Hints:
This protein is of the alpha+beta class.
Amino acid sequence: MTAVLTPFLILDGLFLLMALLFTWDSHREGERRALKVGLAGVIFTLALGLGLFLPPFSLWAKLLLGAMALLLVLCLLPGRPNPQALMGCKGYIVGEVERFDERDTVFARNRSLPPGSEDYKAYYRMHPEREEPDAKRRALGGTLGRVGSIDREHRPNVSMVKAAMHLPLYLRDGERVEPEPELPPLPLQPEEATRRVKGFARHLGAALVGICELDRRWLYSHRGEIFYDNWQDWGKEIELSHTFAIVVAVEMDLELVGGAPHTPSVVESGVNYAKGAYIATLLAHFIAQLGYPARAHHLRHYDLLLVPLAVDAGLGEMGRNGYLITKEFGPRVRLAAVTTTLPLVPDKPVDLGVQVFCNRCLKCAETCPSGASPRGPRWSSTACRSGSSTRSAASTIGPRSGRTATSAWLSVPTAAPTAPSTA
């Protein structure tokens, strides 16, 4: 009898192990509903194992285990490719696409519209319905709230955030690069140029690099973000004659990102924005030295939307949360890009199953505190940033259980620091 039951006991043990791993991971992530599902799975598989030894239930237990094994095999079989995903962003476009106005981004409305200025008055004449909610957001400290307020403005961490955010500002003179008149374009084959550009980008620190032909629908229509007192550029139409985009992604540390919304996650975000700015700027200058114009797009200078470009460049797919989802790192990346006329070989968009998965999962829609990630197809950046401002301003909100950053150099003391003794 034991020999007959052995295959079924092995199957039951496999399912029990899977249920235990799922339960433990759900507990580690602080997911209460998933934890209950995992515990139910553990109890169910234990009951099946016990049923194998009870004659009245043995046959049913075997049938259930066999059905579960068949279902597992079917789940492991690769599905049909998603033809929409393999077309990149083109596969999801419905109707005419109007270029997005950078002035309408939540960041631009909070950072680049000084109250009382002529630009401020001009913008809210066009969008009077946004003036009151934007004023409330500014009162909370802006799009992300007052940096560090959730951690009692712990000065070492806040200082790291500000230090990281400064580097892209220092690179302002390297954003738009034209080749020197005495440097004629080097006649490189697209394959060789692609190999060299990607190799240099990875050497500079890019975790992922992809190339696409520049789709002008992803260009901003008008300038909205002002960082260098160039207020004369606000509202100007954005034009770009480049033909290719090189998109780079840098990986964010899992531990630090897991500490969100606390300052370690903001430190990591700032550091990787700085890395992206560094990579994009050097890459643009490298291309200019080859005799081709180039432009770096990073935290303090965007002419275009990076997520659609990254999708077209084959780095991943866009998830329900509005982020790029990569095969290697999930959404745990920061993006930068370089546009140029240097002839390159475009990469192909990829199908990772993200669109199908996001249509079924809805986890972010159910847990997002501001409702920015709804069950429908539309993601709201305004709701997202409103929620960020509120959460950052509320010092009582803590991290999810088990997901705090443990690095000693980023730890926040439980009590306010005291002045050193002079005795």
